[in-house]
Write a structure and sequence with these properties.
The complex is a heterodimer of chains A (266) and B (400). With 266 residues, chain A is an alpha/beta fold. Chain A is built from nine helices and ten strands. Helix content of chain B is 64%, strand content 6%. Classes of the chains: A alpha/beta (266), B alpha+beta (400).
Chain lengths: 266, 400
């Protein structure tokens, strides 16, 4: 996962999404209901390989539900979701294949409390990827070093701060060598001084060319790394575009209202 | 984070605090209360002992353990060791202890299995299964255990007499004298085969461990159960065959008004076992359900997102966490089952309470009799508690 170099001019191109290739993620007219409540309405979204998309919107707008549909923690009832060329269906094999390619980071970290930091990171490589333990541990230490907490490897999640736990969660997902990373409000449960360390880790990850979809209220992060911002409200995508245009020149009243509310706090 | 450890200000030891001789000093007050409480307890015990000794003396009741060596003259219907009424009281009491252990140990194992199954069934997405489990739990745990024991005993007593016994298969009879099963005449070869079974289990455990270790080296998971079954079943059969494969059936047969030969499960033992197992299983089911539900949904989701399948998630992630919630109340249920086995008296199963009671009536040595019962239950209960506490500590969660 090193940054790719363009052979033509040697420029650093990792931050440019390859929009010409097949999309990494495609959502085509996706609809979902909770009982009678229509929570996702005709969602169309195509994410290119290497593209970084930030999803924002008021709470209850369906942001989390949408990205949770991508690795089927929630099931959509209508429309198509294609991840890395594989369509999500009831076939369990396609689900396994997709989950192996898609890493996810949760708002509440969800580390396994009965396992050490190192074991948290090696469990899936050993059991799902069938990797020898030594290899898995070397891999885990590499990623723990990258998220800057190799010295915590022998501790348990309960002994770490929130920011450290979230960085472990990122390392744990990366150990599966996913092609796509989903972040579901990764900093919402953190104290202000810990938000930065997690965002720094995510910026570092973005610089490696990882395809990312990130649900977040951190507008600074969106400006810094997002190729595109998607604004959702009441279950639909209201507006999307490059960050500068979205933040400086919102087209809809709904986005304008949302931005004024979010930015007031900053 | 780690560099702050070098800061000398953080290495300063906490100040020592002395005790002031004042009622306002919290620690002094705590010590005074403790001394006072211990003093009161000692005084009560001393008074009880003195009072008992005095009363025994006045009523000219002999005390001592001499009665243990006397002939019991006490018939016992079922026993794990050879026993006749001409044996001593000590032997009779040993029979009672073994009978208590027989029902407690088998009961704990069966109640754990049944309770776990019902607990998981109650969480099932299958509506009918979940409701059936729910109804079972509500009905069984709401009725007094004594009533349930009498119910099962009454049902077993309602079975036909030996002459009209139910006879579903060759050598199997179900009557009001209990369940008769074919058995074999026990020989040394069978003992060796049993030893082979134990060794087979130990070898299978080692095999599973080495398979896990190999997986950790090359990443490939291995199928353990074919070899494990081979070891557990194959080894005793092999030993038995090598020793000449002795096989002499001991088939129960009707002689006059009763059966001879075969293996007997008496109606008293059967009723007590069913009652205890079903009653305790209802509580264990709720404990298991609570334990599994105590593991946050996020744990399932995180594991699913990593590509784990449901069975693996249960085994590697959910159960290890659920066990921490399950073990302490499970220990209480094991203790309850063991102590509830003393209700055996009500349906005529001769456990330690029943036999000690008879001993007490025949010899008049009430204090010794009660002391024996207390000692037996205390020993069994403490053993269970010690084992379960050890297990609980072994899997305890590391927090800050």
């Amino acid at each position: 996962m090193s940054a790719t170099m363009d052979p033509a001019d040697g420029a650093y191109v990792a931050s440019v999404a390859r929009v010409d290739g097949p999309p990494a993620i495609l959502l085509d007219k996706v609809n979902k209901w909770y009982g009678a409540m229509h929570v996702l309405r005709d969602i169309n979204l195509s994410v290119a390989q290497g593209e970084r998309v930030v999803v924002c919107g008021p709470s209850g707008s369906g942001k989390s539900t949408m990205i949770r549909c991508i690795n089927r923690l929630e099931q959509h009832q209508e429309g198509r979701i294609v991840v890395d060329g594989i369509e999500l269906s009831d076939d369990l094999r396609s689900l396994d294949a997709i989950r192996r390619e898609v890493g996810m980071v949760f708002q509440s970290f969800n580390l396994f409390p009965h396992l050490t930091i190192l074991e948290n990171c090696t469990l899936a490589p050993i059991w799902v990827r069938r990797m020898p333990k030594k290899e898995a541990e070397a891999l885990a230490m590499e990623y723990l070093t990258r998220v800057k907490i190799p010295e915590q490897a022998g501790k348990y999640p309960g002994q770490l701060s929130g920011g450290q736990q979230q960085r472990v969660a990122i390392a744990r997902a990366l150990c599966m060598k996913p092609k796509i990373m989903l972040f579901d409000e990764p900093t919402s449960a953190l104290d202000p001084e810990m938000i930065k360390e997690v965002l720094d880790t995510m910026v570092m990850l973005a610089d490696t060319g990882m395809t990312m979809i990130c649900v977040t209220h951190e507008m600074g992060f969106a400006r810094q790394v997002a190729d595109r911002v998607v604004f959702m409200d009441r279950g639909e995508i209201v507006e999307s575009g490059v960050p500068e245009q979205m933040f400086n020149d919102p087209k809809t009243d709904r986005l304008r209202t949302f931005l004024s509310q979010v930015l007031r706090g900053h | 984070m780690s560099d702050t450890a070098a800061d000398p200000r953080l290495l300063r030891a906490p100040p020592r605090k002395g005790i002031r001789l004042s009622w306002a000093d919290e620690r002094l007050r705590a010590i005074i209360w403790q001394v006072l409480v211990v003093g009161i307890v000692v005084a009560i015990v001393w008074w009880l002992v003195r009072n008992t000794n005095h009363n025994l003396e006045v009523r000219r009741i002999a005390t001592g353990w001499g009665f243990l060596g006397r002939e019991a003259g006490l018939p016992v219907a079922e026993s794990l060791v050879s026993y006749s009424p001409t044996n001593t009281y000590a032997r009779a009491l040993l029979v009672g202890v073994l009978n208590t252990l027989k029902v407690a140990v088998v009961g704990i194992v069966l109640a754990t299995i049944l309770g776990t199954l019902i607990g998981i069934a109650r969480l099932s997405k299958n509506w009918l299964l979940a409701r059936l489990a729910g109804v079972y739990i509500e009905v069984v745990r709401d009725l007094p255990l004594l009533l349930q024991l009498l119910f099962w005993y009454a049902i077993l007593q309602g079975l036909p007499s030996p002459r009209q016994a139910l006879h579903p298969a060759e050598g199997v009879f179900l009557s009001n004298r209990g369940l008769k099963l074919p058995w074999i005449q026990w020989q040394d070869a069978h003992s060796f085969a049993l030893l082979g079974l134990v060794i087979g289990v130990v070898l299978a455990v080692f095999y599973a461990r080495s398979a896990r270790a190999k997986q950790m080296r090359d990443g490939q998971p291995r199928r353990v159960w074919p070899a494990a079954i081979g070891l557990v079943l194959g080894l005793p059969v092999l030993i038995w065959a090598v020793l000449g494969a002795p096989w002499q059936g001991d088939i129960p047969a009707l002689r006059g008004f009763n059966f001879t030969g075969g293996l007997t499960i008496t109606p008293e033992y059967f009723a007590l076992l069913i009652g205890l197992v079903m009653y305790t299983a209802a509580f264990i089911a709720e404990i298991v359900r609570a334990g599994i539900q105590s593991v946050a949904r996020g744990q399932w989701e995180a594991a699913e997102a990593l590509g784990f399948q449901r069975g693996r998630i249960m085994r590697l992630i959910v159960l290890p966490q659920a066990l921490r919630v399950i073990i302490p109340p499970m220990t209480s249920q094991y203790l309850n089952l063991t102590k509830n086995s003393s209700l055996a008296v009500a349906i005529g199963y001769q456990d330690i309470v029943s036999i000690a009671n008879t001993t007490l009536n025949q010899t008049g040595q009430a204090i010794e009799g009660i002391a024996i019962i207390m000692l037996v239950f205390l020993t069994i209960s403490l053993s269970i508690s010690l084992f379960m506490n050890w297990y609980n500590a072994r899997i305890a969660l590391v927090e800050r």
